[in-house]
Amino acid sequence: MEKRLIELEVENFRSLRKISVPLGPLNVLVGANGAGKTNVLDVFRFLADIIHTDIEPALESRGGYASVAFRGADRIPSSIEIRLKATWTRHSSLKAPDEYQLRISRRARGEGETLSRRESFKFKRTQGRGRRITISGEKARVVDRGGQGGEEERSIGLRRLSSGLSTLPRLADDAGGSEVAALARQLASFRVFDVDVATACTASRMTRYMHEDRMRLDDDAANLAEFLFALHRTDVRAWQRLEADARQVLPQLEGIDFSFPSGPAREVVVVLHESGLRQPTELADASFGTIRLLGLLALLYDPEPPALTCIEEIDHGLHPQALELLVERVRDASHRTQFLIATHSPALADRLRPTELIVCERDDRGESQIPAVSVRDIKRIVDASEDQPLGELWFSGSLGGDL
């Protein structure tokens, strides 16, 4: 069974008043600025922050509960809720998925507030067996259901606002530790990727590649030179495909090489060989679009990708002729990592299938409608248009989600 996230439900998180989004291998969010695309991505940043730091620090880093909660109502909502369904643990399936639910509640007290949390985990185990973990107050309740309807229950003490995602993975298997650890591992691995061109084009220190077994591309591609050099050294086939893709989109490009201005053990610089030029071009002197393209291709050829890769404005700075290849490569890579991508580009949407498009809108009450149009309705509109491309239908307003 393919391991992936199959549904996201959110209530009262920023502009996400109440949404339910089914997710496939490739999911592309389209819509106007402020429609809620970035807020969907931030749900996953928030969950990863909870795993790394816990609930209160994750809220405080975003300005506190009131800044995170839905702002379209007259009053601050009394709770924020996130629910996930996935097939991440060993015995899960589409019919018996893993389920996680987090509810953070607020009670006003004078000029202050009191926060509480409630979490639940549901896992399929062996034949006929399931496990549910419910966390409230300072107690986690673990209930195992047997195949004949019998139950075993135990309780575990937790700190009042401590999250099960950050604490339960340390427990023994019979207390749910292994299942929660699997879920937390996947959530913690989620990446929200956005190439920072100013740092991606600079020299990379070789410390990570020299001392770590696993290559990891930074979320802003700040270590792009080091990552590309490591890929070039360790996965020749992937490197050849990446270089061929770059040449296809950049006709003047003849090849990609590396230089070591401070010695091969200290730092590395990406060098481009281009037709018609006397000497190679360092990546720092390349165009904005070239740097972004190489950053995205590096991401797509990552040999050890996370469970979910989110990409902000994937089309930013790229020529439309690059989008067709990019969509093909994202689709190829979606067999290894699930994608959630935000874009404003009708040209990119033109290259998508109805099942890959998620139209986002925001109404007069400040609520994001995601998806604003069901897959069934998208297919119906495409059929009625005699197979007009999705980007043209979106641009014309037939699919909603104003540009």
From TrEMBL:
InterPro entries: ATPase_AAA_core, P-loop_NTPase, RecF-like. One of its GO terms (molecular function) is ATP hydrolysis activity. Residues 26-350 form the ATPase AAA-type core domain. It holds the Pfam family AAA_21. Transmembrane segments: none annotated. This is Putative ATPase. It comes from Nocardiopsis mwathae.
